[in-house]
# Entry
Amino acid sequence: MANYEFNTQDRKSIKDLLSSPKEVVITTHHKPDGDALGSSLGLLHILRAMGHHVTVVVPSEFPAFLNWMKGSQDVIDFIRNPKSAREHLAKAEVIFCLDFNDPSRVEKMHADLMNVKVPMILIDHHLDPKKGFCDYQFSYSSIGSTGELLVHLMVDFGWDEHLNRDSAECLYAGIMTDTGSFRFNSVTDQTHLVIARLMKEGVRNDRIHELIYDTNSFMRTKFLGYTLSEKMQQIAEYNVIIFTASQSDMDRFKHESGDLEGIVNFGLSIKKMKVAALFSERDGLVKISFRSKGLFSVKEIAEKYFEGGGHKNAAGGRSKLNLEDTVKKFVDLLPIYKEELQAETE
# Structure
């Protein structure tokens, strides 16, 4: 695998820091996805094999389709169990921050995380990490997932000798989900070399794909059908697809965490469409998932207009307006990008 130019001094400092058993907390962003949880649990198994006492503390719940990951049952949810989460943060000697580039991404856990005065290590693949957020930063936006970056770091640190099936399955799941089952242009030859390394530990790609994508509940499948049939709008002039999910719709179909996962991607499966956006009412706000094809950057729209960010072709945002007004705000922005959206796909 490629030898990324990791900071030599930071690498030495971290290896020294973890040369003896430590109380370690691993955390990630609000509403952890496959890469966030897979990276966290993959690292947990590695560090435990090295002799550390490790706990994963997440800012909120994660989707049920990730429950199969070894160690997921011991993850502490800050929203559901703030007392335990705060106790583990308070006794931590080292904190790893995975798959997010700004402390605001942990939302309600923000103050508790930033009040901890111990070495913090950022491992992430998003653009523009906030400066000074962590003591050590390994941020590489050219790598398609935090899981892949972690494997490169483990090889560089010499920690890959502690890889086993449990850790490899978690990391594989994270890489698979964040690369759209290896179809995004962030996938490189190095991605496949990392996957080959994980599969040497006994990872079964078919089993993990089934556990993640083929375990939908009956109500989630009905919700998907309803959304595609009744809540999808095409703005053909701009090659844009919009989905909406109101709180009443989600209540009707007994929505659970993760039920919205992947819906936005259906928009880009439609011929000629360049951008897809999903607007959903959650936690008193409208949350937005953006996806795009080719050179069009949804990251710019998310950052500039919707308090968000992410990658060029996959970003997220939020709005304090109601659902209808948020969608209108987005549609009203499209003429600004008319030339890009109407250009022939390269």
About this structure: The chain has two domains: 8-213, 218-337.
